[in-house]
Every structure is written in C-alpha cells, then in structure tokens.
Amino acid sequence: VSSGFTAHRNGGAVQQFMVDRYGFPSLEAAKQVRDEYFAKYHATGKALLVAQEDGRFPPDAPKYVVSDLSDYWAEKLDYGILTTVSNDLRQSFECLPNTVTLVAFSNGPRKYVKRVLETLGLFDLFGEDRLFAVDDVLPHCKPEKEAFEKVLAAIGNPSPESCVMFEDSMKNIRRAKDMGMKTVLITGKTESGRILPEDSPLATDPAVDCSIETIEELRNALPGLWESPAVFESKT
Fold first, then answer.
1. CA dist., res. 109 & res. 89, Å (int)
2. Which end of the chain, N or C, is more open, meaning fewer C-beta atoms within 10 Å of its C-beta?
C-alpha cells in the first residue's frame, strides 16, 4: 500500500482493462462495478467474475477469465513503482532453517503476482510450487476459510497451529487467527491508496500476535524463527 503500487493497480489500470477488454462505456462505469464487488469479495479476480455472473458487464462483453486480468496487469502496470528488497533482507530469508517453508499467497492473479515477486527479487524464495494466487483457489479467495485450506492442502496439510501468516489486511489476519495460525501484522508506513479503509491495520486487535511496520523489522521482532527448530516468540 505505502509504495503507491496498490492504488496504481486498483485504480486506473483495472478500470482501463474493463473498458478495453469488456466494453465498459467509461472508466467511471468500470470503477463503480469493480469497487462495489471488490468491497464484497476483496479480490478483483473474483469480483469481476461474480459481477459478470450478476449481469453487471455490458451485454456483449466476452466471458471474463482471470487470466485476462493477470496478463493485462503483468504487461501494463508500472513495476518501476516497486523497489527490490535489500540484500540484507533477502539473505535473512535465505538463512531461515530448512524446517521453515516459505509460501506466497495473494488475492492477485498468478502471472501478475509472479511479476511482482520477480521485480522485488523474491520469486526464487518461493518458486512456482509455493506461489498461490487467486487463480489457484477460485471460486474462493482470502479471507474465505476454503481458500486457506486449499493452500494448506497443496503444501502437505501442515496444522494451522504450525503456520505463521504475514499480512497487512485485518480481514485476512482475523481469518488466519480463527484457524489457529500465528499472525504478524505489517502496518506499513502510510495508508494512502487503501481501497477498503475498514481493513486498515490495527495492531491492538486481539487477532494480532505481533506487529511490525515493515518486513525489514521481522528478524528483530521474531528472532526465534531463525532458531532450529524455529519458535514463535514475539518481542512486540
């Protein structure tokens, strides 16, 4: 959120996609439909799917498929807004004990999520097998329990109690906590551009086990994750 990339992706870019690909009459008309359904489903990939099923697309629009959105975002967004992570942070992840499995789970479509991770210099920490996007869990998405269950099943069904969820979204933090996971809230430095203000980080929420402003603070806040075996002991 704080980089401005979220506002870029969810603003004019997705509206232009809806005009170009599905024949919405204006950016304003596209925004109205997208924002209405995003507020319900919290993922543009699912929001547009349901909106078309509900008859909210132009009548002559081609059938929506999430891969169209994924291709558009992967090719059209300005990834220069993002910056690569520091070498120190990357090396910190690389030296986690081999008992820790890193998984990327996003409500974004897969090709786009991969492009983001590649731009950040983090994709090879996950690879194809441990990257999960909305394409992989539809008709569900975060924060639905079924979406989390699909991801857990794909990585060998670890117990939720053995998992730690890192999020900047309260709805996803609360679901993860309800399922038994440990939770780390990343509050960020600014909330400018957040689409759903009611989903803004709340460090005092009982569903939050640990809060940090940026991911760079992780090792200081949870040094036990680098022990063998890893342990979750928050300093915040």
1. 25
2. C
